Amino acid sequence: MNDPNARAVPVADPRDVARALARFPPDTLADPALRAKLERVAVASDFAMGALARQPDLLQGLAADDGAQPLPPPALDAGNRGDWPALLRRHRIAGSTRLVWRDVLGLDDVDATLAGSTALAEQCLQAALSALEDDFASRHGVVRDRDGNAVRLVVFGLGKLGGGELNFSSDVDLVYAYASDGQSDGPRPLAAEAYFARLGQQLAKLLDEMTADGFCYRVDLRLRPFGNAGRVALSFAAMEQYFQREGRDWERYAWQKARPVAGDLAAGDEFLATLRPFVYRRYLDFGALDGLRSMKAAIAAEVARKDLADDIKRGPGGIREIEFLAQALQLIHGGRDARLRRRALLRALDALCAANHLSVETRDALVDAYRYLRRLENRLQMLRDAQVHALPGDAGDRERIAAGLGHAGWAALRDELDVVRAQVADEFDALLAPRRQKPEAGALTGYWQALPDGGDVAALAAAGYDEPAAADTALRDFARTPGVRDLSDSARARLDRVVPVLVEAAGAAIDSQLVLRRLLALLHNILRRASYLALLDEQPAALSRLVDAVVRSAFLAERVATLPLLLDELLDARVAGPLPERETFAPQCAQALAHEDTEAALMVLNETRQALSFRIALATLDGRQHARDSARQLAWLADAVIGVVLQLALREMRRAHGDIAGARFGIVGYGSLGGEELGFGSDLDLVFLYDAPRVGDDGDLQSDGDRPLDAARWFARLAQKIVALLGTVTAAGRLYDIDVRLRPDGGKGLLVSTLASYDEYQHSRAWTWEHQALVRARFVAGDDTLGDAWRAIRGDTLGRPRGAAALRDDVDAMRRRMRAELDRSDTGGFDLKQGEGGLVDLEFLLQYLVLRDAAQTPSLLRPRDTPGLIDACAEAGLFDDDTAAALRDAHGVLLASGLDCTLDRRRRWVVENDAVAGARATVRAAVAAAGLVFDERRGAPRGETQEMRRLL
Its family (predicted)? Predict the structure, then answer.
């Protein structure tokens, strides 16, 4: 785009420039540099030239430093009360002239001009309000709430003022509010509502009223609740009630940019935080597009009615379309991603690009277009300080605008502008177009719309249903439900577009009836949530991903039907990106701790867990990552959840019973959690430990609360609370099923063990199978120093010398008994976990090698996961490189097959294929090479318990 500084003197009618310069004394024009600057300003702004002629001091200041610093605000006090309007107007004119000067001379870019216009408006607002507040306080006192605290007016700036990007000659959209009701304490007291209404009216009059000096700012109060029919100022409570009951879509767009600009700024910020759920919904909110369509239609009608095609704000491809595009994407995604909650448009576009909702190319094109249009808009308004957005009809004005912006003539500017607007219009139309991109579902549309009383079942047979009559019955029953019958017209229209597409997709599935049942269960649960219907209606990609997930995974179908919030994951840009790293799980889960109410915290925590596990499941299902990575991420997620639940339980215990100084607590994960190989829907095997100092011969230390408990009871209750919280059923389901039978002495032992008793048990009374379990155990939450102590106990226990023959007999006997009782393999298929050559055979092999050789090779004690143990054994020379590689591959095959089963809610049993057969052969060979024999039927192992069978 053209550089306005490319010409030393813009091309314009020299007679116009001469007439403008004739208003200045000759000595002012004697300086060639100053004269050149004035010539440039004369082309662009009659307003600025008039102001400079009337205020010689202003010109002198600009000549000195080109207006490098904003002008100081006027002093408004009781002594010059009658001069307030004139002082404010002259200040606004001077400040605006400074902005023209710097813009025209190329000293400020358009961003700086918009920021300067905003700052000038705020300066005038704050000066005027402060003076009026002092005046009101002298006559009516200060409003105080019931506790005697002073209450001030809050002035919210909406629109471009709120966004910090006010155009040159804009009005200001204001809303007045106050924190709480009360009464002023002066000689003529007023109730808060009357006090702040009068104060707000006088503020608007002081700024808006036309005087001999013109106006300061046009004030628009129509965006307040109920518009012109509403009260001038409302309490925060009344505002909140209004938005809960009456808030409309266009108000979400308006309040998205809201910002306190004068008065009690801190109170204003607090109120906006409470209003955030109205503006940004917690889920992906494609219903916001309906509001956008309505607003766009109204604007288009106005453009057509008033012939506003040349309006660069409201016309096609104008500023408003860029703003609406960014705001719509913010409203859709901002409830889930706080990074997108930006008032300023350019920052919003950057955030949307960073979150992958806009491509870099689209972001850059929109940013360039926005700056181009805003600069042109400013120049249109700078010409005569008029709030105009339409291109000028006067030929002379057109040439002045073109010359001031560095174009050879109006035609060149217009050609460039048309390209910019066409690009914006294309991007905006694309946002509203997805609904039209969905494939038609053919005859199924007519079939569905005829239900429940009409409709020809032949349409279902043609769609591929093996049992069309059963599918027809299910669909008719669904159509008769009150949820469908009572839908609003708009929601029913969405459902009528979505159902045929889902029915057609289900008909193409292998088990069409099963898939249809899953989809109808989901639809039943989202009928009252218009936003989810909107998501499926607006986004073909979401609909397609939903069908794919439901067809391939009973687990995902069940999760989505139970918690429709997970539908958001189908379109969240983060889903297609890299999965979270280990260190990112904890901060995301820890956000639940912001809720003081434990039930609310559990709800948020479970929604976070469900969303993250859903994302991992989608990546597994899509083949975007290996099963090993998914299993490890599920374990990391469980670690993070357990850590948060521990904090919640500690918080409740400390409130009820106080704390125990110097005591330590920790949680150990066994089994698949400890081995970082968790599956979808897996439960958690946990052991709880504590360590507390004793007080002489008097026994355990007691907690320091109003209802003290000794350490044993305190930590027992803490563990009970953790188990209860993890298993609490919320609207999002329960967090995890928990098994605690692996503690010392199993179900007969205490729920929580002291560190000393745990140490003694492992060294004196634990059976071989319990030491096997310890190989995969891992400290997952609690006091770090206790974790270090536990790891030392684990190392000492596993690292003691053992007789190889006795150890081999124990391991063999345990595995044989388990396989006899638990192996579900048959002639039709293979039990991936318990079958011969399956996952447990591999785990037993590795555990045997660790117990046998750790005394000589301590490095075997470091890993807990199966791939890590294989690598450690290879490094210790227990496997050659080929065997280690084959075992890693075998483990990957078996684990992936198992995860596929759990994703579809099937037991881990598969029809054996070449990959599984090869994996089994590799495991069998490694077991035999180690001298282990798992396939003979012998007696039960020593120390067999239900807990051993449960774990292994």
Answer: Belongs to the GlnE family.
Dig out the tokens for 44 from the structure: 């662009």
As beta bridge partners, residue 733 has 730
How is residue 411 written in tokens? Answer: 């035609």
pTM of the model: 0.68
Contacts of 332 (CB under 8 A, 6+ apart): 284, 285, 286, 288, 289
**Residues 590-643 pLDDT 10s:** 989 988 999 989 988 988 898 888 888 888 887 888 889 999 999 999 999 999
In sequence order, what are the residues at sequence separation of 6 or more whose Cβ sits closer than 8 angstroms to the Cβ of residue 369? Answer: 322, 420, 421, 423, 424
Answer for the pair 71, 94: CB distance below 8 angstroms, yes or no: yes
How many Cβ atoms from other residues are within 10 Å of residue 237's Cβ? 12
* DSSP-H helix ranges across 383-450: 395-404, 410-432, 434-437, 443-450
Q: Which residue has the tokens 């409003």?
A: 143
Q: What is the CA radius of gyration of the chain?
A: 36
Q: Which two tokens stand for residue 398?
A: 């057109």
C-alpha distances out from residue 604 to 535, 584, 591, 594, Å? 22, 17, 8, 10
- Environment class of 915 (CB within 10 Å of its CB; exposed 0-12, middle 13-18, buried 19+): middle
pLDDT above 90 (res 787): yes
Report the mean per-residue pLDDT for the chain. 87
By three-state DSSP, how is residue 327 classified?
Answer: helix
The answer to whether 150 and 194 are in contact (CB under 8 A) is: no
**Is the model's pLDDT at 300 over the cut of 70?**
no
Which domains does the chain possess?
Answer: 288-432 (1.20.120.330), 607-798 (3.30.460.10), 799-951 (1.20.120.330)
DSSP-assigned letter for residue 231: -
